[in-house]
Amino acid sequence: xxxxxxxxxxxxxxxxxxxxxxxxxxxxxxxxxxxxxxxxxxxxxxxxxxxxxxxxxxxxxxxxxxxxxxxxxxxxxxxxxxxxxxxxxxxxxxxxxxxxxxxxxxxxxxxxxxxxxxxxxxxxxxxxxxxxxxxxxxxxxxxxxxxxxxxxxxxxxxxxxxxxxxxxxxxxxxxxxxxxxxxxxxxxxx
Length: 190
Description:
Blueprint: H1 56-79, H2 88-122, H3 138-142, E1 165-169, E2 176-182, E3 185-189
Antiparallel strand pairs: 1-2, 2-3
């Protein structure tokens, strides 16, 4: 019958722990290089890496789980759902459509602007009266393809709504201003 290595009390042959002090029983042959069987429920020294503390794997797994949960929480808190951009795909599509409509209005105003200058060259370098700046007017004949209003699909016309334009000419016909109206503001050709 061996003695406890902690308190020196005698141990039962099949004891896993000392009945007097509760210390784990060190199997016979430990430290001698001879293989030994660990007591049931007690990990053997060979199962643990050198310097490892019991339960270190559990702590590591728990820490990694907490980090993963934190990442998922932050991602869903800032975007609504994981993997969805802030504001959602619908907002992104709306921004793209608004940008495309604005670009179409700007392009249309530049086309009309060029038509006004072509009309001017053919008419003594004077700028056209307001009644000539329309698809079926004198400026319309100078433009190969009169631009369409991206909001209505109809030809751009004089007015103040989105996709319309405002053309004003000075009384002596030597200067003019052409402004296109968009949903986000106005665009004036210098």
